[in-house]
Specification:
Distance between the termini: 35 Å
Number of helices: 14
Radius of gyration: 21 Å
Structural class: alpha/beta
Strand content: 15-25%
Strand order of the largest sheet: 4-10-9-8-7-5-6
Number of strands: 15
Helix content: 25-40%
Shape: globular
């Protein structure tokens, strides 16, 4: 079938929840992907910051193939070696003590909020305007986009308070005796790649310690090297009580997780939370391959080097239409003075995949293995287009 015939299948059979780009991707190699018509694209989006090692990375592919020949799924009723090995590897690299495996970022955030509520016995959660924490009913309530709330207001849970991002005074004013947790992205992704002041997260941490409030960082998009450190909160020298993760953790296989301190994690006992697919052998084999490759190929050093180069090259673009370039590592936003959707379309036609978020921000979250030469190729095309 050709592209139009395949797209018509969605028109005829899918529940309509996405406005997709009109291409059908078929295969990829490194930072490049190819559609079924043979058109090649430089992937500056990485499946929404998921494909950390790009496409068809040999170590990731082999790990998945080898594990698929042994066990794909066993459920949470039994132990499996890849999940146990990965838990120790990851915990040893962080300031956390315990892990819970989930299937997605939304599920991880849902579990983190439940854990905070169980630990504190309180019922209010503070989040920030323009945040994004998921599309379940509870994580939607925590997400700071009013337009996402509107269709579901009649069943939206109470107890969620949205305050402006990067405004510690707003958080102080929102805290009550019922505040269980503050959940925040170290750098906002869907909100427009918004980088906070250097002391913002530290002030939240100190406030949480003072008030016995659980400090949750949502690292679903910022984690796993995306911002130049294994997790972005490390850039701000803070130690949260809970961290959520997904996207890059599995390099393309659906996986998420919650990390927590011993003190907070102890609030959950058998029966309080659970999962059927979380921590399965296949996804954990992939996650082990990702983490091992980060070390073997010095991925974090590479992200810092090419990320700094990318941002510096974007800042050289002298165009009135550019309002600001911002970001950390390979999580970069270019804010325009006008809506950016048409530029997404035009760049796709030129062979580059990006997206636009927050209406005017072109967001670039390429695979972490991207080279300076590939960045030059993209910046040249972007410059000519703008």
């Amino acid at each position: 079938m050709n592209t139009q015939e395949l797209i018509k299948i969605e028109d005829d059979y899918f529940i309509n929840t996405f406005n997709r780009q009109p291409i059908v991707l078929d295969h990829g190699e490194g930072v490049k992907v190819t559609d079924i018509d043979g058109n090649e694209y430089l992937d500056m989006f990485a499946g929404i910051a998921v494909n950390a090692l790009g496409h068809n990375h040999p170590k990731l592919v082999k790990a998945i193939q080898d594990q698929a020949e042994k066990l794909i799924h066993v459920s949470s009723i039994y132990y499996n070696e890849p999940a146990l090995v990965y838990a120790k590897k990851l915990i040893d690299k962080t300031n956390f003590d315990r892990i819970f495996y989930a299937n997605s970022g939304a599920e991880a955030n849902e579990g983190a909020i439940k854990l905070a509520i169980k630990y504190t016995g309180k019922s209010e959660v503070i989040s920030t305007v323009d945040s994004f924490h998921g599309r379940t009913i509870m994580t939607l309530a925590a997400t700071g986009h009013e337009e996402y709330h509107e269709p579901f207001k009649q069943i939206m849970p109470k107890g969620f308070i949205n305050v402006p991002y990067n405004d510690i005074e707003a958080i102080k004013e929102a805290i009550t005796e019922n505040t269980a947790a503050i959940i925040v992205e170290p750098i906002q992704g869907e909100g427009g790649v918004n980088v906070p002041d250097k002391d913002y997260l530290k002030q939240i941490e100190e406030l949480c310690h003072e008030k016995d409030i659980v400090f949750i960082v949502d690292e679903v998009q910022t984690g796993f090297g995306r911002c130049g450190t294994l997790f972005a909160h490390e850039l701000f020298d803070v130690k949260p009580d809970i961290m959520t993760m997904a996207k890059g953790i599995g390099g393309g296989v659906p996986m998420g997780g919650i990390l927590a301190t011993e003190k907070v994690a102890a609030a959950f006992v058998p029966g309080d939370h659970g999962t059927t697919f979380g921590g399965g052998p296949l996804v954990c084999a992939a996650a082990n391959a990702i983490l091992d490759t980060f070390e073997e190929e010095n991925i974090l050093d590479h992200v810092n080097e090419v990320g700094e180069y990318f941002i510096s090259e974007l800042k050289k673009l002298d165009k009135e239409i550019i309002a600001e370039v911002r970001g950390k590592g390979l999580m970069v936003g270019l804010e325009l003075t006008e809506p950016g959707a048409k530029y997404v379309d035009k760049l796709r036609e030129e062979g580059f995949l990006i997206n636009c978020t927050a209406d005017k921000v072109l967001r670039f979250v390429p695979p972490l293995i991207i080279t300076k030469e590939e960045i030059d190729e993209f910046v040249k095309a972007l410059n000519e287009l703008l």
